[in-house]
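Please produce the structure of this protein holding zinc ion.
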Amino acid sequence: KTGPFVLGIESSCDESAVAIVAADGTILAQAIASQDEAHRPYGGVVPEIAARAHVEVLAPMIDRVLNDAGMGLGDLDAVAATAGPGLIGGVMVGLVTAKALAMAEGLPLIAINHLEGHALSPRLADRGLTFPYLLLLASGGHCQILEVRGVGNYRRIATTIDDALGEAFDKTAKILGLGYPGGPAVERLAREGDAKAVPLPRPLKGAKEPYFSFAGLKSAVLRAKESGDYNDADIAASFQQAALDCVLDRTRRALGEAGDVGALVVAGGVAANAPLRMALEHFAREHDLRFVAPPLKLCTDNAAMIAWAGQERLAAGLVAPEGDPLDFVARP
Ligand code: KG4
Ligand code: ZN
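Below is the modeled complex.
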């Protein structure tokens, strides 16, 4: 493990996370606190509750992570924090924490775009992954295809015009009474169903622009359920197949628009879906691309990816010696 050592802070949604990452990608220590319990009674993330929870846990988490790494604040070389996009209260808590540390310890602050954290995290998991690569980022909040050309050089090729893919899984789960988060439950139930049983639309399939849309699919799932003509397992399997068909079609289109990429990378919570991973792996092989699916704990929200993005920015010379300005503004 070699310096510089970067402490990363993530607080843009409902996970508070802190990590210390070395220049060679070694994760020296990390901690993550999920707020699921606090939000469960409300059926979704309540921004004010999230922000207050970050305030309570971040400082002790920083102590714990330093302790686990056998380091003191003086051993750090920089502090990186998510500066947006995210729920503004939470982003402010993490960023202000990082600014305070930077100021008190005389360390450079590195303000990280949360999506840059996601975009670069596959290189933390797989140090052999070189630019440029095509990244499908699919979670409850994000649904994008990016051409990752280099550090600080991203081209967004596709995004969703309505729901994110994970959101579509969650809504389908809700319609089928499966609870939250719904993705894993839908995948499990789908194994017992017939993917051809329920005729469902493939929104935007074949469309020239590589955008995603899942709202119409979700409505069709609701109508199928309300019709009483189908069993839940068949609905789950048919939904999953339709979503998968859309993703493959949109990825194919996005690849046509991308430059000469060498790998297809899938990240975000939905990357846990086994049929989706298999279909994408097959697609990558067909197109002579390397297929990279980082371990889930690095591609769902975490702080190691924020610290790592800080390392990448340092190595690329994108951080001024004094760091980013301490009045750097948090973005919603
Ligand atoms: O990245 P993530 O943990 O959090 C954010 O949304 O930021 O992603 C969570 C999303 C949820 O929508 C969840 O239902 C979905 O990922 N998900 C899945 C599976 N596991 C998690 N979707 C489909 N199949 C899965 N096995
Ligand atoms: Zn995220």
